[in-house]
Structure formats: C-alpha cells, structure tokens
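Cross-posting from the modeling subforum.

Setting up a comparison between two proteins and wanted a second pair of eyes on the formatting. Protein 1 (sequence, then structure tokens):
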Amino acid sequence: MRAGSAPAGRRRTRRATAPAGPPPPVAAPPADPPAGPQVTRQTPARHTAPVTDPSQATGSTLTDPGSLADPGRSGQETAADGRVRPALDLLIWDAPNIDMTLSTVIGARPTAASRPRFDAIAAWFVEGAGDPTVPGAPDVEACVFANIPPQPGTLQRWVEALRGFGFAVFARPKSQPDDDIDQDMLDHIAVRAHSHHLRRLVVFSGDGRNFAEPLEQLVRDGTHVVVVAFSEVAGYAISSDLLEFIDIEDVPGAFVEPLDRVRLDALPPDGAWLRPTRSLRDFVSSFTARRNG
C-alpha cells in the first residue's frame, strides 16, 4: 500500500460508485390521484450506482477477522446483523500496474499482439465460477481500474470495448503524478466483502505493497484469493503461503501469441539467454548524470 494511506480499519472517507448496486426505490402512486392529466417524470438511467463507503459499513474493512461467516449450502450466508449475503466471485484488474509490468518483462512498448485479451480473460474467470444453473452458484463481477490522462486519446474506445466484454470500469483522472487507484481498488473489495459472501477474488496486479497484507487477511477470513500477474514482478504472491499465484500468460488465450520473455520458472533444460532490456551505454549515461547531479 502506498505511503500515507489511512491505517487499516479506519479508511478515509471518500465518494465512490460501483457498477452494481440496488435499483433506486420506486415510489408508490398516491391513493387518490388528483383529477386532470398526469405527467410522469422518469429518472434518467445511470451507469453507476452509489455504494456505501466501506468506512461507514460494519465489518467492511479488509483486516476485520470477523467480517465473513461460514457460507451455507445455498452459497449465501447470513451476516451477524441478519443480512443475507449472496455468493460472489470478483475480478479486479489493476490497469496501470499490468501495463507497466508488461512493458518491463518484454522490454518494449506493448503492441496489439502483446496486450492481454480481455474476452479470453472474461471467459476464463466465468468458467472458474462454475455452472451458473447449480443452486448456490455465485454471481460474477469483473472490474477494471484505470487512470485516465488529460488527453485520453484512444482510451475511450478501449473503455467501451471493456464494457462490451462485461467489465465495469472505474476511471480516475491522472492529473498529478501521485494520482492513482490503489485505494479505490481496496475500497471496492471491502464494499463487496461487506455486501456479499466473497467466495473467490481474482486480482490482476503485481503490486505487493498495495495488496499483500489485505489479500492474505481475506484468505484467513475464508476467501479464495488468486493473484494473476507476471512471475518476474509478483514475488509477494509466489512466496505467500496463503495466496494462489497464476502467471498471466498461463491464462488460456490471454495473448494472441507467446510473449517475448524468458520465465525463470519455465526455463528450457539447456538454459536460456535473457537479453538486456536497456542499452548498457544508456544506463551508464543516466547513472553518471544522477551521480554527478
């Protein structure tokens, strides 16, 4: 988690929206409507719905060991306050982290062929939730969290494509270097852990500083947590005794063609060369400039 974040259990108050939530209540018609023509005003449809701030919800913090109860046979569970919480499988995609680490592992700017395919990832995630016709089958929700620069360029088409694949997108303006979405992702997980029985959580991110401690606590509370990232940068998940790790390239169909990388966990018997991702002269030039600056 980034420096300066609020301590666990006392998250700072923030406004939030979520892709799923209760529909707005419909007011009952008056018992004796007045005579004369009536005008029906319809509330414009919204793409997002207000969600309770996790700091206001009892048992919603990720470090509260009593926030989850034992699920029943139906897949639902009854919370201590009597609420019935439906089972949920949740996917969280940390777009800035995945983009940055993809560039790192292939040593180049990603192209269309080297970017992950969200349609294949959606299919893999939903398949992991099991047969939806079986009693107690979980709901599924997939969310992409992204920073949007002042000039979004082609990002609008990317966002619309994600929505067409069934992903909800949380977009935050990127106007300052420290504008990020770390806390937004943790807040949304906390909201869903409060409103649902969080059966399975799949996090696409190599950001151990942000996720390691909260995710391990969720496992202790009974959630199956899977971290999907590049093995080169996901040491926190690989070394954890609680988290399951999957290399993103092992998700079936996630990439059109194999990435130009050498994985230390899948080396050929005769070994392999790992070429530099940066020119030696370029590195020495920048190093010398920093040392003399």
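Protein 2 (same layout):
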Amino acid sequence: MDDMRTMVMTVASGEATLAERHDAFEGLVLAFQDMAFACAYAVLGDFHLAEDVSQQAFFSAWRNIHQLREPDAFPGWFRRIVLTECSRVTRGKRVPTVLLDDGVLAAGMSGNPQKGIETDEIRKAVYAAIEMLPVSERIAVTLFYLDEQSHSDISAFLNVPMTTVAKRLYSARARMKEKMMGEFKRKISSRRPSRNASFAQKVRAGLYDEYVGRYEFELRPELVVTIVREGDQLISESTAGQRNVLIGGGRRGSELKTAEFDGRGKFIRNRQGSISHLLYFEFGCQMGRAEKIG
C-alpha cells in the first residue's frame, strides 16, 4: 500500500520529471493491469475489447490523476474509470461476447474432432453460466480466477468489504459447476496481461506518443513545432531551428516545459480526450496557440 501511495503521489507531482512520472505510472500499470483487464472482461465478455478498454482506462487515469485527492483511494477510483470506459464501448450497441478463442478451438478439432466437439460444448456451457451471473459476481469471480487475486486486493479494487467479496465468490461458485470453474480459470489466466511485458509497454508508449505530432501556430502558419519521442524523452523541434528536451510540468499533467529555458506548453484536449491544440508560454506570457495537424 505504501508503494502504491508513493507511485500515485509521484505521478501527480508537479516537481517530478516526465520520465519519473512515467516510471511511477508504469508501476501502477504493473500492479493493476490484471485487475483492469478482469473487470473489463467481466463486463464486456470479449478479450480483445477488454484489453483495449484497459489501456484506455490507464490513459484516462494518467490524464486525470490530479482529480484523486487521496492516493490510497486509487484502486476504487481506477475501477470507476474502467467501468466508465466499458460504458463508452457498450453505449448504443450490443457487444459480442467472445469467451473462447476460435483459433484454439479449430486446432483442437483438427487434431481430435470428437475431443474438439466436447471441448466446445464445455466452453459453451461455461459461457452460458458466466453470462447468467449478476455483473457484481461476474467481476468478483473474474478478478479471483484471473490470477488468484486476494480477497483484500479485490476488496480494495471494488471498494466493498472483504465479507462482500467472499459472499459474491461463494454465490458464483454455487451457480457454476466445478468443471466449468476450472475451464474458466484456465482460459482467463491464459489471457492475463501480466503473462508478458507487452501490455505495460503499450501503455508506456501511449503516454509519450499522445504528445507526438506537428503543431502549426494559428497566427504564424509558417512556424511549426514537431514533437518526437526518442526513447524515454520527448523532443520539440521547430521550423525556427530550435530543439529542446521537454519535461513534465504542472500538477494537472497537461503541461510540458523545456529543460533549457522558461518555455512551457499547455496541451488542450477535444471532447474525445485527444490532444488538439498547444498553448505556448514564455516567462508566464502566452506567445501563441498551435493546432495539432498530424
């Protein structure tokens, strides 16, 4: 808990460098990636959508960490972000539920058709049983069987007492046969993000890459600032010949500063949450507004 608190405080800090904030946030990603994925999968029923939604939830948490007043409340706060991202996906349309991997199923049937049919029947039964669970139980059982999360961790993430977690797990087990639970555990565990470094790497790259692009100043269209990523550094290059290393600045996480002098950029987001404009300041005075053009 102390480590989590320290990481949250570092991410929200206006004094830490961008690299330090990203390192701290990567620690949070590693700690909560499986929980985010399990929660999203329990709601959406689709492995690929669950991974996409989990990544978007981390991006949203990064952008809005300043809204979190108490670092210890991060698990429950982050869960609400995951559920919000799930709602955006499901709003106005039905999400196809895909519990099983068609490739795995096809391979099993080609090697042993009878066994493949039996496996398919088991998986369909698992799907039907999971689908019938209330959402609260579905989330609890998915969190538990994804990587055998402790009741304490699940309690913090769901923001409910451990007794409630135990009741939900007991109820879910009572509704599902042991064979079904074993198949569900095997399948969900094989998809957990922590099985390799890919998920965390994608999130880290995304935190840097959202700034990357070309920014054209509205009153001076001949002046274009290009932000590129070089390893774990962001570099700005302008058509005026300037090249600067950018560092984090500002508690709200929407600003970057030049390391060499008192230059500051404030990034504006559109309704979709994507960066659309850059406001540039020098020595506290706004010098111009640039539109992100690519």
